Amino acid sequence: KEDEAETLAPLRERALAIGISVLALVLAAAAGVGYWTSLQARRFERARAVAEAQREALAGRLERLGTYVQDMLLVADDQQRIVEVNDRALQLLGYAREELVGMPVRDLRDPATLDDYPDRVRQQAEHGAALFETRFRRRDGATFPVQVSVHTETWGGRSHFEAIARDLSGVKQAEQALRDSEAKFRAAFEHAPLGLALFGPDGRIFETNR
Predict the structure, then answer these.
(1) Which helix (H) or strand (E) holds 206?
(2) Which among 138, 145, 147 is positioned nearest to 169, based on CA atoms?
(3) 40-61 per-position pLDDT tens digit
């Protein structure tokens, strides 16, 4: 004989209480997830900041190394155009940095050595590295011998060529001085007015003059 609203009122009150409890649990869970996410984000940000600081420190050390190293360091893009050089390259080649950046690599070569240039580029592309000797030309037109070690790196989906070029002028001068010295010795040995012989440790003659 009860009214329907009167009969269902206790159920509605219980349902409301349960709903409030569930909502409170959901909110608490959401808050927990939010806190955990925030905590993870802060940890990630700290790790990223540490990694970035380490990269910057490494970049600084590499920059200082590139500044004081005695070899030329050159970086070229996939079109063989120079994008970065170190101070030693500027010093040896006689260019300002803004003149070298954007210059084709082939323009650094002595024109007399360009016959092998396509083969060198192909070797770099196919094998990822190359080692060879050639001649570079300074801004004033003078040329000098170099040994070039180059390898390929990929940045941002594009190939770049990193080269270390060593000035061989001193080495070549020393080699020439040795050849001249040997030639002088040979001339003196062969044309001496006395008979000369060279003996080995066992007493055997291994060379005489005329």
Answers:
(1) strand 205-208
(2) 145
(3) 888 888 887 876 776 666 555 5
